[in-house]
Amino acid sequence: MGCVLGRPVSSSDSVSGSRHQISTSLESNRKEVKEPRIEPETISSIVVPVVAEVKEENEKPKGESKRSNKADPKRSNPQVVAGWPSWLSEICGEALNGWLPRKADSFEKIEKIGSGTYSNVYKAKDLLTGKIVALKKVRCDVMEKESLRFMAREILILRRLDHPNVIKLEGLVTSRMSNSLYLVFRYMHHDLAGLVASPDITFTEQQVKCYMKQLLSGLEHCHSRGVLHRDIKGSNLLIDDEGVLQIGDFGLATFFDPRKRQQMTNRVVTLWYRAPELLHGVVEYSVGIDLWSAGCILGELLAGRPIMPGRTEVEQLHRIYKLCGSPSEEYWRRIKLPSSHKHAQHKPLPQYKRRVREVYKDFSPEALSLIDTLLALDPAERKTATAALMSDFFTTEPLPCQPIDLPKYPPTKEIDAKRRDEGYRRVRENRKAKGESGRRTRTRERAHRAMPVPEANAEIQSNIDRMRMITHANAKSKSEKFPPPHQDGLLGYPVGLSRRFEPSEIPFSSTSFSSYSNEPLQMWSGPLVPVEVSDIAAETRRNGGCSSSSWRMDVKVKGKRAIV
Ligand SMILES: Nc1ncnc2c1ncn2[C@@H]1O[C@H](COP(=O)(O)OP(=O)(O)OP(=O)(O)O)[C@@H](O)[C@H]1O
């Protein structure tokens, strides 16, 4: 979502030179998505003119020249609706209902806590309530309908969801000067990728059950509200300091209607967690893709590392076949491949037998049974989140622990794991420069760390696709317009002041804000609950005093590690 600062396609993204016949059809998949096509997804509820234009583009017969991606400034509505800049209210209409923008200088950045393809995430202090929040800074070029559409979809989806295991969008901060938008979320202390990658942390089966129960409950809610997440992975599973897990990052999520046939892009989900039907090129899919990812997470929590860390789509399929067996004739009949792909069924040689029960023989029978269902090659056999929640895994001893009974960990995020690796790398380089051997550090680091590399990220391709759309229409370098990402992170300044802008340049600054100052709190973007000073003090203590002795670390040994 938002605008994209991409990178060139990595050579390791390429599927050329593959050992299997599957490469042919993978390449044809890639060809299919090379064109910047608009997904025919259900976004009709965004009732704004821009979306109507997008629909027209979808319906346009092939061969007709595409309308420029650039919005016509003359046609855009110059009116500012309820305090929102026109570019946002125009595209986000319904999603902004009942909200007013928070002003940029009412937050103070504390530190950068995450970075994704579309955004940087900051820990910040809400200067009005004293509450610690996470600000996801999305950069969006107001002239690009595509980037706006993705952003609008994420906001709309987030506002439709309301569940304890789904991250809640608490507000929006806009800054007209920089064309950027901040999404305000509750601050979450950890993400599951960070915990799994932490060398000192292992999970008991009770704890795994607790995390999985929360993940599946969140997914059940999303699916019941017609939302597919399409990017379930550890770094998108956020955990607070009371053990509550919330599904985050709805940047790739979409609305779906299980009763209707609907075509969607298959270039979703980070590679390690991507269901086989997506890799095969299916464009009509459903909740099964999220359940496959949940199965990968279950395996990862029990095994202590990602279970199928492929580097390319070909390798990913190969790993899937080696663990889950080669697809049967029946599978090919059941999955609905687009006609352009039917000629090339993926039949790798040799044919593999399903080995899930053999590879994970050290898991409990109930865990084995659940992972076997979730990692079914046929999406229909994966069933639903509701069915998974009713499995024996959650009802047999040891029962899932309560979130509050989970160990208290020091703040751990994927970014911390990345920083740790970066530290190891520097040590190695220093040693190398001094002529010492760095082999020991590297071996240990590799044994524990298996984070998704950029090449393994499915979003990259779609991001590149999106970026192409943006850069084609906007050939000027982004850096001419925006500060480079590293300049976003200046600390201790109100959010809107972290660049060179004067306070007076910032929309919704103190002058404009005063007009809202008599409104009840919940009239600002999202219900902002005032917090007690004691909460702030507690938060400060928690975040300031990270001495290892104050954290209870769980070091119980879990089942044997297995990797395929
Ligand atoms: N509410 C939050 N509280 C604390 N940290 C958060 C929060 N939301 C996101 N983060 C951190 O920021 C990281 C990136 O956030 P997010 O996944 O939403 O961004 P993204 O640009 O969509 O990333 P990606 O490209 O990896 O999908 C997360 O992995 C997480 O560590």
UniProtKB/TrEMBL annotation:
One of its GO terms (biological process) is positive regulation of transcription elongation by RNA polymerase II. The keyword Acyltransferase does not apply. GO terms for cellular component: cyclin-dependent protein kinase holoenzyme complex; nucleus. Residues 28-38, 54-75, 428-439 have a biased composition (Basic and acidic residues). The keyword Transferase applies. Pfam families: Pkinase (PF00069). Residues 107-394 form the Protein kinase domain. Residues 9-18 have a biased composition (Low complexity). Keywords: ATP-binding, Kinase, Nucleotide-binding, Serine/threonine-protein kinase, Transferase. Coiled coil: none annotated. Residues 1-38, 54-80, 428-448 are annotated as: Disordered. PROSITE patterns: PROTEIN_KINASE_ATP, PROTEIN_KINASE_DOM, PROTEIN_KINASE_ST. ATP binds at K136. GO terms for molecular function: ATP binding; RNA polymerase II CTD heptapeptide repeat kinase activity. Belongs to the protein kinase superfamily. CMGC Ser/Thr protein kinase family. CDC2/CDKX subfamily. This is Protein kinase domain-containing protein. The lineage of its organism: Eukaryota, Viridiplantae, Streptophyta, Embryophyta, Tracheophyta.
